[in-house]
Design brief:
Elements lengths: L1 H9 L22 E8 L6 H9 L7 E9 L5 H8 L6 E6 L4 H11 L4 E6 L8 H11 L16 H4 L4 H4 L6
Helix pairs in contact: 2-3
Length: 174
């Protein structure tokens, strides 16, 4: 109990990200808002396909925001983010000195306003139904969080059923 009291005193809830201050939703709640948080460090060749896969997401809720953090890239990642994020609603692009992916992700989480978070890496290619499937898993069960395993296009059967040609055509070869 002494340790618990000390820990309680150290936590400053005023500095918690807004996402953590929200009441938990009931399992049957319908998702109404999601924040995509993406971190990028020297990922210029991947930005077009990442943005294309975000734009291809189906069944998104009415309130969506996109927060992209350029973590001190030395290539043209920041310019690529500005160019290819056009057409997405509620985009925030943050440029900072390189501090690593954990710090960059935390910066995005602190900026997020919506109830659900989808954290992406600068080279993630999302299946068009990924967000919808994850949200359905959250709202249909009493799970506190959900995640998806990654894989290559050859490893995951669901990827084979989607026509990736238009998305991949926007990629710049590495």
């Amino acid at each position: 109990t002494r340790v618990r009291k000390r820990l309680r005193r150290r936590v400053n809830f005023a500095n918690m990200p807004p996402i953590l201050n929200k009441k938990p939703l009931k399992a049957t709640a319908i998702m109404s808002s999601i924040s995509f948080v993406g971190t990028f460090y020297n990922k210029s060749p991947f930005v077009p396909v990442v943005m294309a896969s975000l734009k291809a997401q189906r069944e998104l809720p009415p309130e969506v925001e996109y927060i992209f953090i350029d973590d001190g890239s030395t290539d043209d990642t920041l310019a690529q983010l500005r160019t290819h994020s056009q057409g997405l609603p509620n985009v925030t692009i943050i440029s900072q000195a390189n501090q690593g992916p954990a710090v960059a992700t935390n910066v995005g989480i602190f900026k997020a306003k919506n109830h659900f978070l989808k954290i992406i890496d600068g080279d993630d290619l999302l299946h068009p139904d990924l967000t919808w499937v994850l949200i359905k898993a959250l709202t249909d069960t009493e799970a506190a969080s959900v995640y998806a395993h990654g894989g290559t296009l050859d490893d995951v059967q669901i990827y084979r059923s989607f026509d990736w040609a238009p998305v991949l055509a926007r990629c710049t070869p590495v």
